Give the backbone structure.
Amino acid sequence: MANYSLERFRSEILDGAGLARNNRFEVIITPPNGLSGRGPESELASLYVEQASVPLLNIFAKPFKIFGPTYQRPITSEYGGEGMPITFHVDRNMRIRRFFEDWMHLIVDPVRFTVGYQENYISDIFIRQLDEQNNVTNEIKLIEAFPRNINLMDLNNNSSNQTHRLNVLFAYRYWVNTARTTPTPVSIPRVVLNPQVPTIDTRSRQFNPLTGHLEYDTPGSDLPISA
C-alpha cells in the first residue's frame, strides 16, 4: 500500500489540524526604547497591518571540487534581514505614518544627519500564524528590527473609493521561531573590549648574581617576562 492516499490526505485535513490560511495572522510591533511612550501608536500600527510575510531562511554554499562532481559546502546562513515588507492601512490623521517617520528619525537625525545609538531604535517584531479560533499556531520573532524605508503614498483625484496603504520595509538581524529552543546567534556586543594579549617571551635569560635579577640576552628590551 502506498504511503500517500486521498483518504489519508482527507483525514489529515478534516480530522487533524487542517491547513494554515494566509489570511489568519497578526503582527505585533513593539516600539523601540527611543519611542517608549508611543505604545498606543504601536498598537494601532499592529491593528492596521494588511499584509506581511513569513521570513526566509537561506544557506550559503561554496562549490568545492576534489574529483568528479562538485561538492556544495555550507558556509553560513542568512535570515533575509535586508528587508521585510509590511503593508499598513493608514488612518485619517496619518498617525501610522508619523509613528514610522519618528522611528526613522531616531535612526538618522533629520537635522544633523547623524546616526543614533542602536539601543534606541531597534525593536522586536512578532509575526503570528492563527487558526480559525484565533489561537497562535506559530510565531516568528524578528530580532533587532527597524524601519529602513517607507514608500510613496500616491494622491489621485480619480481614486475616490480607495484608501491609502503604507509599505514599510523593515531591516533586522535574524529571526527565531519562539517555539524552538535551539541556540540562536549571539547579540552584537554593545561595548568593544581590547583585552591585553599575554606575550610569550622566547628569548633566553639567566640570573645575574651582581644585580639579583634575570637578564635577557638582548639588554634594554621592555618586553615583560611571561609567567
Summary: The first helix runs from residue 6 to 15. Residues 105 and 113 are 9 Å apart (CA to CA).
